[in-house]
Amino acid sequence: MYGSESLARRSGARTVWLKAENLQRTGSFKVRGAVNKLATLGGEQRAAGVIAASAGNHGQAVAWAARQLGIDATVYMPQDAPMAKVDATRNYGANTVLAGAGFDEALVEALACAAETGATFVHAFEDEAVIAGQGTIGLELASELPEVETFVLPIGGGGLAAGIAIALRELRPGVRLVGVQAGKSGRGTIADGIAVKHPGDLTMSILDDLLDTIVHVEDEEISEAITLLLERAKLVVEGAGAASVAALLAGRVGGSGDVCALLSGGNIDPTLLISVMRHGLTVAGRYLVVRTRIDDRPGALVELLELVAAERGNVVSVEHHREGMGMHVAETEVELTVVTRNEQHCADLCRALETRGYRLERLG
Fold first, then answer.
1. Mean pLDDT of all residues in the chain?
2. What is the per-residue burial (b if ≥16 Cβ within 10 Å, else e) of 51-67?
3. Domain 30-125: assigned CATH number
4. Bigger pLDDT: 327 or 27?
5. In the sheet where 50-53 sits, what is the strand order?
6. What is the pTM (predicted TM-score) of this model?
7. Angle at which helices 159-171 and 201-210 cross, to 10°
8. Considering the domain 2-27+130-281, what is its CATH architecture?
9. 325 pLDDT tier (thresholds 50, 70, 90)
10. How far, rounded to the nearest angstrom, does the alpha carbon of residue 154 sit from its chain's CA centroid?
């Protein structure tokens, strides 16, 4: 459990606590439900093996739990599932099958295989034993955070939020429970761990009864949350794991007093993390990308770079464009990527360049 002054200051909450399930075995909360489900299987069921469908985290959890119990596991994953999650699932010993564009398509394939082979299908969220396993987080929250008034829970299939809600409503019925979903705009989302078309019937019936409200966040907000958690809390969190913090920063949680945001997982693909960090830093004014024109003569570029240096900007990329840009024959276009301190520093640097006669087009 982590207390974050930075998040409290930015969100206006008295105290913000982070339940860091990204540090859990297999990198997410999913191992709780998988272990609980597989532990209930009898001898014949274990001998027949298990099958799961997963965007990544559930698959890793089932693979790890099956290995611990000596059970064969097959996991169906979307064709575009992050390779970090696919490789981890394989490394835990499961047979992985890439099927369909998203979770729902992989689910159809997995159910068909289970029906054909007689293996036990381990659903990611529509299973009472899985929900109960995730609910152990709620038991811990009730015990460890008796003063917290609001809990923010990401919702994909709904098993995590349902399990926690059941436990908290029993032990601390007066708390506010806020669910968070990603990608309301209809586009895809970087929060692949909660990128299901809709929660399950079982879980949604629980959530409709127990949650106070459900809010939505978009990728821009999730990206900001990932960046802030890495920089301030030193925690690597995937898109789904950052959704609760994104809602908090966006002011959609409401309530007062202490808040706990659940970080559901940390299995983010490294290439996506790089893209998210660069984007997040750009939005925060930590990267400045500008385009300008200079005379095509010796020393002209040096003069530009010296001016940037005088304003304490750190140039990390320089690109020249001489052809096909509709420029004067004696000009060249230059695109600079500069590391800056904040948005005010970006504005000051641009003003200094424009004062010296450079016409700027800001790209980021």
1. 91
2. bbbbbbbbbbbbbbbbe
3. 3.40.50.1100
4. 27
5. 95-98, 73-77, 50-53, 120-121
6. 0.85
7. 40
8. 3-Layer(aba) Sandwich (3.40)
9. low
10. 10
